[in-house]
Amino acid sequence: MTGFTRRGALGLMGGAASLPMLGTPALANTKLTVGALRFTSHAASFVAFERGYFTDEGLDVEFRFFEAAQPMAVAIASGDADYAVTAITGGLISLAEKGATKVIGGALSEEKGIDGQMILASNAAYEAGLTSPAQLDGKTFAVTQPGSSFHYMGSKIAGAEGASVSFKPLQKVGAIIGAMKSGQVDAWSIVPHIAKALAGAGAVQTIGQVADYIPDYQVTTVFTSAENAANERAKSEAFLRAFSRGAADFNAALVDKTAGDEAAEDMVKLIHKYVYTDREYEKAAPSIRNGAMRINANAALNMGSVEDQLGWFKSEGLIKDEITTETLVDSSYVDTM
């Protein structure tokens, strides 16, 4: 670090996340493209943008939206996006091995006592007896791509149950939803703002919780190009500070619910600008509230979970055995948990 640590700087924020930041004068109007999915789990970036936290840091941010995690990693490596939040995937790890990307923080996490990602069965599979993960043997499990977070979750769940499942890659979340509704695939796991909405509409059935199989799972990470991590420290630290302020606001409003009812309502309205934009607010609001999982304070990273994920990728032959956490993570930015 140069002159201070991010841990120390973010620690000063504590509960005073609303205090104005002085920013970095050298970064005035620095343009950034931030990759995101239209998920409640990406809310920290949306809050940082809408409440001016990026601007406070001298960052002029625009979003580029994706429909799956792996294409986002490719965009970071190619320079089509500067920072992003997504799950650890085989694609992200392979790009890190090539010296193209680095994880610099943590974002969404499974936490005991907070509704997290849910395991779903199609109605057809449920009626045929798939009423819990214990009946997954011989079933199909939807993933976007091989080596995606869906593949990791499905494999860990099936392994815990001693089940043999077939993974069906469908590329996009929207395609998976359609396949679940039509019974073309039997099972899937997804964040609660999607899972609860589908189950509540009777389109699928909830049969379990991911946290019961992967406790303290580091679902998503903050990452950037290796070039930014190594040579754009001021910019990367500024991004993380703004992102962390957004996460603090989100957690207070919708996870810990310490900010009050008005703040919660304001937060849901803010997120609705990006999530479920095709729905009227009254219909979108319950799903957004239902999707409120913990976003790690100060972008802290659960290294134990990262190591477990790397171990799984190796066991599946999806990455090389010599890849380590140092290959993937630039620990000079990271607060651990």
Automatic annotation (TrEMBL):
Superkingdom, taxonomy of origin: Bacteria
Annotated InterPro entries: SsuA/THI5, TAT_signal
Record's keyword annotation contains Signal: yes
Keyword terms: Signal
Domain SsuA/THI5-like: 40-249
PROSITE patterns (UniProt xref): TAT (PS51318)
Localization per record: Periplasm
Family per record: Belongs to the bacterial solute-binding protein SsuA/TauA family.
Name of the featured protein: ABC transporter substrate-binding protein
Annotated organism of origin: Lutimaribacter marinistellae
